[in-house]
DNA sequence: AATGCGGGGTA
DNA sequence: TACCCAGCATT
């Protein structure tokens, strides 16, 4: 059964796998690493252009390590999960300082780098160095849970352990790179989450989930997502050609990205009423300002939050004290990284905002 | 062991 | 709307 499973996947990869990607077959560990960080929880099509941008701007790990943080974040802007960007830059600097710019070549040293966990370490170890470590990503969970009919929740500790051990047992000797590539592509192309192609699947004959009609029920997840709503009111405060922004530093969404002056309300608020709240007065104090315009509501759906944002364009004729915020010329805003909802606003308004 | 972190695609 | 995507760090 094990032999059938691995051989079938390797054969499928050799003869029928048409999934092409810029980093496939890549042997440079730096490029493999870059692609793996970008692709964490991210679809291949979504990460593709970002990979190309990063390779173009930073062809080697030394160049990435030497880059200013703000420039790297600006390249990452729009991709999400921004801690990846922060950790990636830290890891690049680790590689230069501790390994003289040579990518570490054991599973343990690879995983010791910032932002690299079990999956990414196995991916780099196998693809770059053909080391015998099985990858365990969303695709592998799905393929294994279905073929072997395993209903242990994949988001439980027991599940992760069970699937990791099975994946490692299945890894064919000396073929780590091609086998890991095979099973992930197979999960993405054939054994898909929705509408798996069981009618043409070369594993279907021995797939337990297919035989039992359980493909729609596997893999199992134990936890259900709770989504909370948040209401952001941004004061786009302008003085001459400058606008006030700050970097988000709290342990919250969009850490290390920039934003305008934020008032978060516990519930939807009328923007006129907002201007007489304590929160607003605490920021604007007795500053004389003019309300030039008010935007509509921008909605952004994150995985576990829904953000409703509205932008108030305020202008002042005297430069105010605004602790924690910096006044930046509007033509330099593109040096800073912003969350999607703000780049949407800027894109929609840039002709009329200033 | 549980929670939080983006943005986009699909049904 | 609900779920998922070449997961990881933090608590």
Automatic annotation (TrEMBL):
Occurrences of domain HhH-GPD (ranges): 38-189
Catalytic activity entry: Hydrolyzes free adenine bases from 7,8-dihydro-8-oxoguanine:adenine mismatched double-stranded DNA, leaving an apurinic site
Keyword entries, A-Z: 4Fe-4S, DNA damage, DNA repair, Glycosidase, Hydrolase, Iron, Iron-sulfur, Metal-binding
KW Metal-binding (keyword) present: yes
Note describing how the cofactor binds: Binds 1 [4Fe-4S] cluster.
Gene3D superfamilies per record: Helix-hairpin-Helix base-excision DNA repair enzymes (C-terminal), Hypothetical protein, domain 2, Nucleoside Triphosphate Pyrophosphohydrolase
Protein family according to the UniProt entry: Belongs to the Nth/MutY family.
Protein name: Adenine DNA glycosylase
Source organism: Chitinophaga filiformis
Gene that this sequence comes from: mutY
């Amino acid at each position: 059964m094990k032999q059938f499973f691995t051989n079938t996947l390797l054969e499928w990869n050799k003869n029928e796998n048409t999934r092409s990607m810029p980093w496939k077959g890549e042997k440079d560990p730096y490029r493999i690493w870059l692609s793996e960080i970008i692709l964490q929880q991210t679809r291949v099509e979504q990460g593709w252009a970002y990979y190309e941008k990063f390779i173009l701007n930073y062809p080697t790990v030394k160049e990435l390590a030497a880059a200013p943080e703000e420039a790297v974040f600006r390249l990452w802007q729009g991709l999400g999960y921004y801690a990846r960007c922060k950790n990636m830059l830290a890891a690049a600097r680790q590689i230069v300082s501790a390994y003289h710019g040579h990518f570490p070549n054991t599973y343990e040293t690879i995983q010791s780098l910032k932002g690299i966990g079990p999956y990414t370490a196995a991916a780099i170890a196998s693809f770059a160095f053909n080391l015998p470590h099985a990858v365990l990503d969303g695709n592998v969970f799905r393929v294994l849970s279905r073929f072997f009919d395993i209903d242990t929740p994949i988001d439980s500790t027991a599940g992760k352990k069970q699937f990791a051990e099975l994946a490692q047992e299945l890894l064919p000797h000396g073929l780590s790179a091609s086998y890991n590539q095979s099973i992930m592509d197979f999960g993405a192309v054939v054994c898909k989450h929705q509408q798996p192609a069981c009618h043409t699947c070369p594993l279907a004959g021995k797939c337990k989930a297919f035989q039992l009609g359980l493909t729609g029920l596997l893999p199992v997840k134990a936890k259900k997502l709770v989504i909370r709503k948040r209401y952001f009111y941004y004061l786009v405060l302008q003085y001459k050609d400058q606008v006030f922004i700050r970097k988000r530093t709290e342990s919250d969404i969009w850490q290390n990205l920039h934003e305008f002056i934020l008032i978060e309300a516990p519930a939807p608020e009328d923007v006129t009423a907002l201007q007489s709240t304590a929160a607003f007065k605490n920021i604007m104090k007795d500053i004389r300002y003019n309300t030039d315009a008010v935007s509509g509501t921008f909605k952004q759906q994150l995985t576990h939050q829904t953000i409703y944002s509205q932008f108030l364009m305020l202008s002042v004729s005297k430069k105010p004290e605004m602790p924690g915020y910096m006044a930046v010329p509007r033509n330099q805003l593109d040096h800073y990284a912003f969350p999607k909802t703000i780049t949407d606003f800027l894109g929609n308004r840039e002709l009329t905002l200033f």
